[in-house]
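Ticket opened by: R.M.
Priority: normal
Category: complex prediction / small molecule

The reporter submitted a protein together with NAP and asked that the result be attached to this ticket for the collaborator who will pick it up next week. Submitted input follows.
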Amino acid sequence: MIKGTNKIGYQESAQHAQATYAFVAATLESLPEAFHPATGEEVDQAAQKAAKAFPIYRALAPRQRSEFLRAIADEIEALGSELIERVMVESGLPEGRVTGERGRTTGQLRLFADFIEEGSWVEAIIDPAMPDRKPLPRVDIRQMLQPVGPVVVFTASNFPLAFSTAGGDTASALAAGNPVIVKAHESHLGTNDLIAQAILHAAQKTNMPDGVFSSLNSLGYEVGSQLVMHDSVASVAFTGSQRGGKALFDLAQKRQRPIPVFAEMGSVNPVFILPEAMLVRAEALAQQLAASITLGVGQFCTNPGLIVTIDGPETRQFSQELAKAIEATQAGTMLNQGIRTNFEERVQHLSTLDPVSMLGSRLNEKLPHTVKATVATVSGADFMEHPHLREEVFGPFSLIIICADRQEMENIANNLEGQLTATLMTENHDDDVVRTLFDILSQKAGRVLFDGVPTGVEVCHAMHHGGPYPATTDERFTSVGTKAILRFVRPVAYQNAPQNLLPDALKNENPLGIWRKINGQLTKDPL
Ligand code: NAP
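Result attached by the on-call engineer:
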């Protein structure tokens, strides 16, 4: 049952005199439950509790934390259809997508549980003492990764489950040994409430300390800003707009003790189609891209927003086929009014620009509560001349850039900003242009794909979902996959520390049985 309260550890709280309401994404009607925004005092209580829980939580054995993560997954599943229905109402996403996203969320929690039980992720490194070394003896130095402290998670509007309350940021922060405070997104307050309750049930069942998890509602930016500025908060995870991510990043740098903000802010995810690919599969490429552009009404940070081609009859056929396929798709409900207005205004603006040609007849028409996917074309030269055409249009839109030749294609690649993904569609992997583009795109993007669409982001050990600014505020880290845990830890070296005080991962006998690097060699052997 949705309660509308703030969850401050195990305590529910509703001090604010005002209430805020969730809404039906498809009709913008208000839903009945009142949600209480957190007051300044409640923000402080949540942060203080997280700080108190931290030393207890971080000292737990990995197995205890993994039990907690698995219990969260079980509790989410136990919410059954109540959760699925609420997500559908609040997000406008269809049942299949929501059920799939729930599976991804619980799968991700269980993956992190297995990952921390296996244990090698702490990167234990031991350089034992060499008392007889000449000319100077070597001291005993051991290092491993340790959790940083309370993490604030700003949930994403476009993934109400997988990038939200119990999503990848929360899962990785908890897995590392940090308490989490979630700032609920106004687009899915009820979903957040249900998941927060599930997390707290799991915490109680597995005897986690009070304060290991809190969830706060907000009215405007005050709660989020206060959380980022709170002394007890050690790190921030965010998925959303460039404006929001950068504002929170800047705020965190103004603190007495600046802290990291890991903001994933989306990108235009260019797809480069080489002429050889166009020649043999223009129609198939059009179908493949149309499906990717319209998936989830285009509300993916990996939506292919730019398609870079070289002029020719096949490219013209591709553009027509893509426009036809896009036009044949149903109009879709967007996640919230703000996102929909942004989309409509951006597309409307593009349609007024001389160098941009909108494709298709029904494109860009105003529809009640839904939007229609749209594609447009621009020449390579005009694209280079108008830098604002590189900005993301969040939603089902893609700009086809028609280059005069391969050199222009390369210039466009060289002029791209940081991207989450970049894709190469080609038939000839030995081509010099492909090699050059591969090299350029490897510098520009966090993930380089061949012959696929970027919208699927596998949750696995090798995934990197990040990229140079403005795709993220820290290109060294991913927000998807097990390496996401590295955002919320820091290395600590112990010099000549006694065995009884060392963490288990660094003790001589290797009680956890994990892989460690001893004198530069990976081994599971005791010392
Ligand atoms: P958003 O406006 O960036 O908001 C995300 C979260 O950050 C919300 O909880 C918001 O609070 C908070 N926030 C934003 N700016 C803040 C500030 N200056 N101080 C404190 N808190 C702040 O993103 P959105 O609402 O999800 O969607 C808006 C646009 O973001 C979309 O049109 C799209 O362009 C982009 N977007 C990108 C991605 C991505 O993949 N990276 C995902 C979703 C959306 P409130 O709840 O109070 O507004």
